[in-house]
Amino acid sequence: MSHHPEATPDRNLSLIFLFAATLFTSASLMFVLQPLFGKILLPLLGGSPAVWNTCMVFYQSILFLGYLYAHYLSTRYSQHRQIQIHTALILISFLALPLALPENTVPPTDSNPTFWLLWTLFLAIGLPFFVVSTTAPLIQKWFANVGHHTSHDPYYLYAASNTGSLIALLSYPFLLEPNIGLANQKSYWSVGYLILCLLIAACAFVLWKSRQTSEQQGDDQDTTADENNLSLATQLHWLALAFVPSSLLLGLTNFISTDIASVPLLWIIPLTLYLLSFVIVFSKWNDKIHPLMVKLQPIFLLPFIAYAFINPADLPYWAYLILHLIAFFFAVMVCHGELAKLRPHTRHLTTFYLIMSFAGMLGGMFNTFVAPFVFNAVYEYPIMIIAALLLRPGLKLSLNAGLLLQIIAPALLVIAGIIVHATVADLLQYFDAIVIGLIGLTLLTYLLRARPVGFALMTGAIIFLALGLHGLSSHTLYQERTFFGVLAVREAVLTDEQGKPESYHELFHGTTKHGAQRLAANLSQIPLTYYSRPGPMGQLFKEYDNSDQTWNIGVVGLGAGALACYAKDQQNWTLYEIDPLVIDIAGNPAYFSYLSQCAHNAAMRVGDARLSLEKEPDQHFDLLVMDAFSSDSVPTHLLTKEALELYFKKLKPGGILAFHMTNRHLSLKKVLSINAEALHLASLIQEFKPQQEVPLVVATDWVVMAKQAETLEPLRLSRLGNWQKMPLYFDMKPWTDDFTNIVSIWK
Hints:
The chain is 56% helix and 11% strand. The chain is α/β, with parallel strands linked by helices. Among the domains are: 12-102 and 113-220, Growth Hormone, Chain: A; 401-477, no CATH class; 523-745, Vaccinia Virus protein VP39 (Rossmann fold, 3-Layer(aba) Sandwich). It has an 8-stranded mixed β-sheet, sandwiched between helices. The termini are far apart.
């Protein structure tokens, strides 16, 4: 046994500030780079969610590889050799600066661009992002070896890393994006990366000169042997505790936009809570906060299950949002609190973080690539709620009568529900009684809070039965899910002009209605909702009725296909739609018959609007209708100055651009007005509200634009609707592919 002289621990606060500042800067750069480079790619590849999903897989994969590198470097090499290798890696990464796409890079047009995108991301930002990814585990491992009096437990520095992530996350949409263009963002990021490299160099210098280097070197050489001290069960437990919150975060974000409200930037709130949980649990306060979270979670779960799943009251969307966010925060706080409580000795620090990053990558892959193909709605969200309850402290999996009872009782409840559903003809007449029964069972689950298996499975059984009951009551004829969201066809009933009940079909994307059709043969060719004959689109086609006989018309965004019923025999229509499932639904007469009855001469194009229009000949269209929505949101790259220039490049000199801008949350007319003014375009707006009660004729807002005011003059002078000149705004710059500002157009 060797003996070393006792080293006096360093109590210098400057060491903490140096290492914390390095972690803070690294995390900030990581969370700024992701949306920054996404915006760089947007005009090149369009707004397909598949693009964002591919980018996220790239980021998570590089993060995992960065953690793997840090683990291998710190467990296989001496501290001096670690510094030499990492310095060489940083110097090589400078070749990727300043940030930019590779020259003459063009995505393939005749094949899937996934591998092209991954290769482009690797060439453009792969090395700098990899270096940034290695920082959190490597710098904490180095801090564990510098001889500070807190070096035995450096995990609290992880709070600095997550604080940097949190601040970068909030500052990008509210501070950086509104005030700094993309070109300057790239330059500033490169400067920030150089500052990070200097901070890493300072940390390396401290480690190099550390008095404990000779002592720690022997410890590092034994680390490989010490890995055997970590049981497989412990590592799998870490994996589960990190995987479930990662999947739950993505599931809740998707659920909010699909089932609650498609509000721009709403995804920031769950991610903020997720990062905040790391800040709290890896701080010195976790020992007191974690037991409190464990006690409060089942108490709050009772109203959450009752109001969010069993019997949703008539509450505003923000009330539902608060319910889900609080339940989510308790779940991630309990899981991450357990993770922090189980953190290992510093010799296993990089293993711990490696498993955490691997779990995060698995969570992203499960929600991105598995769930959309397995489920026809966002079912991964309630599944992960149940999984989070299973991970509460006190889980014992030894087989005994008590555990069997905890499993059998929820299973019997589900089986009973399925039997009742199959045998009772009109289950909805017992709706209130079933709801009261499920709420009563929810109260009983509280008694199982100390038994995670029974608590989780009974809660899961109740959620399963509640979802089945509400699916039955919504009269959903068809529901399917793709990368682009959840699409549903529902049957509803209206009161017709004679006061009689009449069935009709509706198309929903998430929470937003994207079209409707009456089923009677004499009414089925009447465009409804945002495209009604009394509304702006009906007015436009009626006013130009005598001159549009041979028009070439393009429509971006298919919906249920209602606009096609304005088509005339000599016209040529081209319909653009990014989601093939929308085309399948609109083309199926069992759901909607607009296309089969009206679109005899229409050509269909699948793909992103800007990319599809680029392929069309210049000066081709007489009328171009922009009606592209993702749930309730218009993709921002379709609103920019460059997008408008593209549209008018494809329109004839006397052509008209019609833009649908109905939106619950954003004032899109502001963007269109400023861009029209910048491009010297004539424009009119109508914020239409029905003057009388007509079935399925709804309020809707449209803008029309042309190169010359004379083109729109017939519409302005007509008495068909209240068309007015666009208001002028002077408080915002034009939106471009380089600059957008969502915050400035909130209603």
